[in-house]
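Example record

One chain of 314 residues, shown exactly as stored in the release files.
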Amino acid sequence: MAGKLFLITGLHTGKVGFTVEVHERMPSVEYSAEDVVEASYRPIGDAALVSWGGSGSWPLELQPGVDYRVRYSAWGMDAGHQAGPPMDEPPVDRYLLQFWPARPAPDRVVKETSRQAAYHHKFAREQPTPEEFAERKREKARQAEAERLAERMAAWGGALPTERMERAPYCRELSALDRALVDMLEQTEPETLQSIARWAARRACEEAGYGGNEQVAGMLDRMDSGAGWFETLNGPQLPVEPGPGMPVIRLVTQIHGWFDNRDPYENTSTVVTPTFNDDPFQAAVETVWLATSPFTDKNELLTELRRRFLTNPG
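Predicted structure tokens for this chain:
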């Protein structure tokens, strides 16, 4: 971590001998030490030696932003590892931390004797370099993006949606059911899309058993004849004088969607309304999706749609 050194001792809990030295130039190696390592270090802000848990802190006379070489020498790491409380006994292991100005250079193990040092060196060698860590991070991001795209593709029936598909209500739901059909609809001319929407609305009402309902039949006939949305839902309005006897106009106010226990007029209004969408593709997609609701097998409607509108006789 930039600006930090993590120093390991053999003793787990207790007191160790510890000396810090700051030199103007590289000091001689203490060859009586059992273990010696070196690394480059650049302090950020005021440098300090801090004990584990932060219970103690000692300032270090190092210049922020200056490159240093640091040497860590150890005596008795194995004995310290085997030792423990009481803490009032003389220290078992001791350490020397030395700094001097120097250009950055690779870390190195100057001397290795104890099993504890060998264990920690092995662990350190197995860690990724900064470049490897950065590449792993990039690869993890690439995998996360690939998973996100895969999930998005699965939600859209196996392929990413076009902008036109994303704008169409219920297009993702219809794509998950039959993406190939949605692709075909996107390539279909507007007149056919409008015919598909009106056909799907009528077919849904037939499947729901509304065939004998005069109000529903009138609504569907007005839709096919080209009446506007308001007239389709309410019938032609004759001019009347203000006062008693004014016509009653019904508007759908329930949650959008097809529900089996809903009044036939309201279900029909729900499935007829999207046929008036100014975008024929959106009209077809939303109406077809809503029209699948009364079908036990939704694919039955889609199969009929293909056969009726999208099959090339040639």
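Notes: Residues 130-155 form the longest helix (26 residues).
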